[in-house]
Design a protein that fits this description.
single chain; alpha/beta; Rossmann fold; two-stranded parallel sheet; 11 helices; 10 strands; about 30% helix
Length: about 300
């Protein structure tokens, strides 16, 4: 199954010209009090995005007070379709981050929050006339693949836990909404979202192939929200420019111009001095002993 499609069938060079000014987008952010949502709120470009920040009614007002300078705060419940429709009214796009974020989540929780809640969100976006949904999927949608396999976006989902199963549902829902209900959607399979300082901790080595820095994921979210209208559906992998990547990020580079800035191996003290980006073996065309081509004289 293709991992992306557009109105005109062509997918190369879709991302907007960076020198062309973008119109202000009104964006509903669900899960705005979470790690990703709050970072996006605090670092978004107010010239490009006007935010409505959805938090839960049970969130401590003092804990979310820091969000007030960054957008309109509203309370919402993924189980309440009517309230979600109201929150989606007047929005150009939705960044859907809310749900149970735990890989150890039990079925009753992922059913309520990640399946029913995601269905309600997409239904509300359609009812309100939103022009795009950016859905926070996860690396767990494909974590069932062997660790030596670099997963590409066009390969079948292969979840390694029930949380991953719920993210597969979200991706299928996004595809359905894009193809059948005229609600364009982009799914981001997000890796281990961590500050860059975390990569400098020797104990963080297990994040080697799944790390995505705060600023890199932020860039991918902004580029996905601003994706050209012709891009109706896509799955992008949200990792930094790590020397070793569990997920292939080439689609995000090609379709929305994603250019991650960080590399786990260049930051981690146990790996930095190895200079892996320079010293890893591979097919090095600058090395004449490895250069491809005919080795013998061939008569004309």
């Amino acid at each position: 199954m293709a991992s992306a499609f557009s109105l005109n069938g062509g997918l190369s060079g879709l991302y907007p010209d960076p020198d062309r000014p973008s119109a202000l987008q009104h964006v509903l952010v669900t899960g705005a009090a979470g790690h990703i949502g709050s970072y996006f709120a605090q670092h978004h470009d107010p010239v490009r995005f006007n935010l409505r920040l959805m938090v839960r009614a049970e969130d401590d007002p003092d804990r979310i007070a820091f969000l007030r300078p960054f957008g309109e705060i509203v309370t919402g419940d993924l189980g309440d379709l009517e309230s979600l429709i109201g929150h989606c009214q007047g929005m150009d796009a939705v960044l859907h981050l809310a749900g149970d974020p735990s890989p150890n989540a039990v079925w009753s929780s992922v059913l309520e929050n990640n399946l029913t809640g995601t269905y309600h969100l997409f239904a509300a976006a359609k009812a309100a006339g939103c022009r795009r949904v950016v859905y926070a999927s996860s690396i767990h949608a494909v974590s069932g693949y062997p660790t030596e396999v670099q997963v590409k976006t066009g390969e079948p989902v292969n979840p390694g836990d029930l949380y991953g199963v719920s993210k597969c549902f979200g991706e299928a829902m996004a595809r359905y909404m894009a193809e059948q209900e005229d609600v364009p959607a982009i799914c981001l399979r997000i890796g281990a979202f961590q500050p860059l300082e975390k990569a400098r901790d020797e104990a963080a080595l297990p994040l080697l192939d799944a790390f995505v820095s705060h600023r890199d994921l932020h860039q991918l979210i902004e580029k996905s929200l601003a994706a050209p209208e012709a891009l109706r559906f896509a799955v992008f992998h949200g990792l930094s420019n790590n020397r070793f990547k569990r997920l292939d990020i080439s689609d995000a580079r090609a379709l929305v111009g994603y250019e991650p800035q960080d590399d786990f191996t260049a930051e981690n003290p146990a790996l930095r001095d190895l200079r892996l980006s320079e010293n890893s073996s591979g097919h090095n065309l600058r090395d004449q002993s490895q250069k491809s081509g005919l080795r013998e004289e061939v008569p004309a």
